[in-house]
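Q: Okay, next protein. This is Selenoprotein T from Leptomonas pyrrhocoris. I've checked the sequence twice, so it should be correct. Can you predict the 3D structure?
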Amino acid sequence: MKVQLQRSLPNSKEMRIVGATYPTPPLRAAIGRACSFAFMGTLALALAGPQMGFLPPTVVNFIGQQRGMMIGAGFMLNMVGNSLTQTGAYEVSLDGELIYSKLQTGAVPSVEEMRRIILEKTLLEDYGDKSTDTKPSNDIQTPA
């Protein structure tokens, strides 16, 4: 979206478009990391379990019998961990003012919609009202 906005906005040379990720809540991030570590552990046990000499024979036997289940459970943990770390948030601010939020609207804007909003906030404000002497810095921040 950043590249498309830079190409389509007539005043794109006057503004800086910055992308950033929306932070994941700390608890969700920690659980997601734990799921990723558990994924690696289950894969290591499922693939190299019989070669690990320190495991009791009953555990080695169980791993041999349930290898497919362990690999499936590991991949399931990986999917859960990934979904916990993705916020799906999308917010756009202009000069520190929030002009669009997926968290509030529930939808990701199209390039045309963002272009219209940005033009309204920049060019139309610049040329529509001559009573103000301040010019906005036109810094746009969007998620990467």
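A: Here is a summary of the prediction. The longest strand covers residues 97-101. Residues 26-48 form the longest helix (23 residues).
Q: Noted. On to the next one.
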